Here is the input.
Amino acid sequence: MPSEHESQCCGARVRIKDGKIEVLTKPRIKHCPLHESLYNVEGGITRETVRKTMEIKMAKYGFCCRHRVFDDTVVVPYGSSEIIKTCLEQSLLDAAVTVCDGAGTVITANPSLVQGIGAHMTGLIKTSPIKEVIDFVESHDGIVLDKNSAEIDQERGVELAAKLGFKRVAVSVASFQAEVIGRIRRLEKALGVKAAIFSVCNTCASQVDVKHILKADIVCASASKILRKKVAPKALLQVGVAIPVFALTPLGKRLVLVYLVNFNDKLVIFRSSKLPYQAKGRGPTLNL
Here is the structure.
């Protein structure tokens, strides 16, 4: 069966078709300390380094492949999957609606599966079903929204989670789907659920996206200058400096704080009269 997947990497759009990688657009980022440390990138981010990153993700982690690796090791200190995993373990959340290459939208109450899916998976735009991936997800208490198409539809994912009886549901929404956030908010009362919305993969977020992203509970700023300017001042809490994560609601703040209680590294916490808090030279730089 033909296989085709599209995702964003460093702001570049990448297609993987039948195992072959094609970088469709120029990266939006020219330097990112986190990306460089994870994938051993040197000399700045180019189309070629994006291609090499995808090769590493496919070879080492099975991204968009039958040998997909579901390793629940913490990768990003304040990553969305890491926060969701911890809050599921601590019973603040009942389930998560996430996105997995080879499966599409997935609903699960399994913390390990959430992290296994999300550890190295970013910016998935569309994907094709991969039987081995779907089989693994289902054998680890995951429910695939549509096994035939591997459709990505977070709104329908929340609807299904509600039908399954989950009341407190985390859901990740990428910037290129940002308008879904408002639709999920409108569903909450009708479905009798509380959605903890994580706005993720925001490097390419536009001015239009901001009004939707502001309705989220937790926002990863990625490399977006727009979010640092427009979203950060409305945040109740910031974690991280190089790639800040903003909690915009009391629920988002609580989820982050519970995650930090269970975070093993040392922390410095202090008040700030305004956000974002930034340290020169710590964050990504853009090609814009």
